[in-house]
Design a protein that fits this description.
This protein is α/β, with parallel strands linked by helices and 233 residues long. The chain has 2 domains: 5-126, Response regulator (Rossmann fold, 3-Layer(aba) Sandwich); 131-232, Winged helix-like DNA-binding domain superfamily/Winged helix DNA-binding domain (Arc Repressor Mutant, subunit A), CATH 1.10.10. The protein is built from 9 helices and 12 strands. Bound molecules: calcium ion (CA). Calcium ion binds next to loops.
């Protein structure tokens, strides 16, 4: 069986080697890049299963790189876990908005990072094996191709936005708290802050455009997917 390949983007050699050592010990294949330019090239050529991306990089910084990777057709489905410094909290929100899947704050324990990697990979695997398509109020959600279609047009979402939409749409009309959304859309582990759910929902609505009303805010509680039965009558 081919090994799961992880691209580590980190300019500090010591940290990069520490990561390589720990990842290889867990059975992963590691590809390293010490700068953004090389990272882009390797992300395209090596087609890794996941990218660990340090935000502090020379020349092209991590966020810029994240933006590019999440926009390019070839790389936009590769999950990204960001490595951030404590002082970069604002960057975390930006990164998540750009489509990064999770983050770990430096200094981190390799064990924690390994857990996050496993969780993200498992989430992706579950998503692709669930395999079905549902259409609600004209919005089609394809969980095999990660595609969302509305009015004949594809709406391109990040992994997390897609997960939230897919999760809410399982039970139209049912209200979910931010905690439940985190648990449901992220499966195991609450690695992100409450407000990140709001950030993602905001971005999701913006992308949905005319279908934005399908994600309803329930004040004081959370969010729900529009229920056709109750309000279209
Ligand atoms: Ca760095």
């Amino acid at each position: 069986m081919p090994k799961t390949k992880i691209l580590v983007v980190e300019d500090e050699k010591e940290i990069s080697e520490l990561l390589q050592y720990n990842l290889e010990k867990e059975g992963y294949q590691v590809v390293q890049a010490y700068d953004g330019q090389t990272a882009l090239k390797k992300a395209e050529q090596e087609n890794p299963h996941l990218i660990v991306l340090d935000l502090m990089l020379p020349e092209i910084d991590g966020l810029e790189l994240c933006r590019y990777l999440k926009q390019a057709e070839k790389t936009r489905r590769i999950p990204i876990i960001m490595l951030t410094a404590k002082s970069e909290e604002a960057d975390v929100i930006v990164g998540l908005k750009l489509g990064a899947d999770d983050y770990v704050t430096k200094p981190f324990s390799p064990k924690i990072l390994l857990e996050r990697i496993k969780t993200v990979l498992r989430r992706i695997a579950e998503k692709s094996s669930a395999g079905k398509m549902r259409t609600l109020s004209g919005l089609t959600i394809d969980t095999v191709k990660y595609k969302v279609i509305y009015g004949g047009k594809e709406i391109v979402l990040t992994n997390i936005e897609f997960s939230i939409l897919e999760f809410l749409s399982r039970h139209p009309g049912r209200v979910y708290s931010r905690d439940q959304i985190m648990d449901g859309a992220w499966k195991e582990g609450k690695f992100i802050v409450d407000r990140a759910v709001d950030v993602h929902v905001l971005a999701l609505r913006k992308k949905l455009g005319k279908a934005a009303h399908l994600i309803e805010t329930v004040r004081g509680i959370g969010y729900r997917f529009h229920d056709v039965e109750s309000s279209d009558a």
